Structure formats: C-alpha cells, structure tokens
Amino acid sequence: MILGVPKEIKNNENRVAMTPAGVMELVKFGHTVYIQKDAGFNSGFADAEFTAAGATILETIEEVYEKAEMIVKVKEPIASEYGLIKKDQLVFTYFHFASSEPLTHAMIKSGAVCLAYETVEKVDRSLPLLIPMSEVAGRMAIQEGAKYLEKPQKGKGVLLGGVPGVPSGKVLILGGGIVGTQAAKMAAGLGARVVIMDISLNRLRQLSDIMPANVTTILSNEYNIKEAIKEADLVVGAVLIPGAKAPHLITRDMLKLMKPGTVVVDVAVDQGGCIETCKPTTHEDPVFVIDEVVHYCVANMPGAVPYTSTLALTNATLPYVLQLANKGWKRACTENEELKKGLNVVNGAVVYKGVADAWNLTLSELEDQFI
C-alpha cells in the first residue's frame, strides 16, 4: 500500500503521525511511505531520519494526498485540506466528528473512508488510541491549570501545593477515566487537595483504592458539582462519551458560584466540551475569561509537548496502521472488531451512531459498506 504522512497544519499542532521507526516497519512489509517535507521537524525527527528508514520526502501537502492510498494524520483535516481528500482514500486520524458539523459534511462529500482513532475500541470498552493522548492531556491539565492560577495570568494567585502553614489549593476533576485519573495523580503529587467525581460507583471504588490520601472521591451529580465548584481553585473537565458530544456538567449560570480567578481546563473541548462556556482555543491564544473565570480550552493540548506525544501516539497506532496497510481496510476491519468500530464515515455514508446523532444524519448499516 502507498501511505502518506502530511505535515500537520492546524494551529500550533507540532506532532507527526509517523516516526522513523514506524516507517522502517512499514517498508519491511513492502509498503511505500511518503512523508511531507519537515513533517516531523517540530517533534524532533529530521527528514534525513525518515529517508534513512526508507521513506520518500515530498515537498508539498498536495503531492502527499495525491499519491497516497492511505493518509495517516494526527488531527482532523482542516478546511484547506478538504479538497485534497479523494474518493475511496483511507484517512486514519483523530476526527472528533461530533464537535464539527462542517468537517462531517466535508468528509461525507469527499467519499473517503474515515477511520477515527478516538472510536477504535477494545472488547473491554477501552479506547487504545485515545489513551496515550488522554494520559498526556490529563497530566498537562494540571500543569497548565497551575500556571493560569497565577495572578499575572488573571488567576486567583494560588499555589496548588501550598507551603508550610498555608493551605494547598483545591482541584475538582469531573470524570474518573484516563484523563481524570492522570490529572488527579499530578494534582495530588503537587500536594493539592483533590476531589474527583464520576457517575460510576465501581470506578470511584477503584480510584479510592489507588489514590493517595489527599484525593477524595465523590459521586457526580448536579448538586454535588454545584457545591464543589464553590470552593475549587482549579476545575478539570475530563468527561468522555466515545464518538459523541460531551454533556454540559457546568452551565453558564453555574459560573456565578465560582470565586473570581478560578481556572477551568476543559479537556473534553474537542468533543464539544463539558463546560458550557468553553469553546476551542489554541496554544497561541489559549485562554479567555467569562464571569471572572479563566477558561483554558486548547483542543490539541498534547501538541505542546510533541516529542513525548508523538512517541506515545505512534506506539499505539502503528500496530493498527500495519494491519490496515497489510490487509486493506475492508479485510482488516472484518477481522478486527476494534478497527471496525473506528469507522465513522465510509464512502459518503455515516456509519457511527454518535456522529449521526450529533448532526441528525441518517445512520447507514456498516455491513453495507463491505459489499
């Protein structure tokens, strides 16, 4: 198969979807890999490393899309890429269709096969291609939240870990999944007083067993959230419904309950956000203030630490890329139910329920796409 890796052009997206090690594995199986010039530069991988591994460097993004049967990316295509995607071309990347109606309609129109990292799902309901970036984003949520709590950044002026004789800061985490767990670990390690909420009692029991003493678990409901945000210095939104919009757990009216300078970090913003007032921002302009509450809503947080993020992501994606390249998408998805669940839009048809529901589109039978 002919694979193409374009340079990411979303604002401040510094990751790349393939490492030289991944290229070497693909070339060993007889595949051709085209990498756009400087695609890996910001992640610490030079063109010479890719060519030494067996890739061919192409100057422009147009050439990559034109030659490739399969495009491997990190982030969803942006508007300038829509017209480059061809009918029947396989595009393997994070799509997050439920947060972008224009992207959804553009991919339907393209006739491409859109296989989304974020909905590849194992039998145990875990999301193997979302986990590594969720781990990065969860840890970064505390790092960034702590920074924006500083007074020059319009925060409360609170040091999360406190100092002897001074109380430590309070962190509220909504969601006990991968993002929430990693955020709680980081916040607890800094010495903050942490509350983590989830709707699952079983998950709360698990977290209670593994977390240090400065982490408290509380059942998530509207009343408990309203009470907790009154005292929180930092609130992390870490809710995920695979492939669908995140529910709004904090509404605009609830901001009035927060103290001025409280910081909210909505990691779920790429799925619509679980804080109603959040809208996607960039690393270039990451925050805005509403009702004296500082909002950090960067949709590609791991892009700020591209070396770590690229290695973590490609460690997880490469086995799936190899299956798709070796077998073709139809056979690979037939033989591997995990990959099959990653199919969102196929040849103009929406085949993933969360996407259809988000935009009131007709859901097609997935099996029809294999004929």
From TrEMBL:
Pfam families: AlaDh_PNT_C, AlaDh_PNT_N. NAD(+) binds at S134, D198, R203, S220, V239, L240, V267, A268, V269, D270, V298, A299, N300, M301. GO terms for cellular component: plasma membrane. The keyword DNA-binding does not apply. Gene3D superfamilies: NAD(P)-binding Rossmann-like Domain. GO terms for biological process: L-alanine catabolic process. The active site is at H96, D270. One of its GO terms (molecular function) is alanine dehydrogenase activity. SMART domains: AlaDh_PNT_C (SM01002), AlaDh_PNT_N (SM01003). Its EC number is 1.4.1.1. Residues 4-137 form the Alanine dehydrogenase/pyridine nucleotide transhydrogenase N-terminal domain. Keywords: NAD, Nucleotide-binding, Oxidoreductase. It is an enzyme of class 1 (oxidoreductase). Residues 149-297 form the Alanine dehydrogenase/pyridine nucleotide transhydrogenase NAD(H)-binding domain. Substrate binds at R15, K75. It catalyses: L-alanine + NAD(+) + H2O = pyruvate + NH4(+) + NADH + H(+). Belongs to the AlaDH/PNT family. PANTHER family: ALANINE DEHYDROGENASE (PTHR42795:SF1). This is Alanine dehydrogenase. It comes from Lacihabitans soyangensis. The gene is ald.
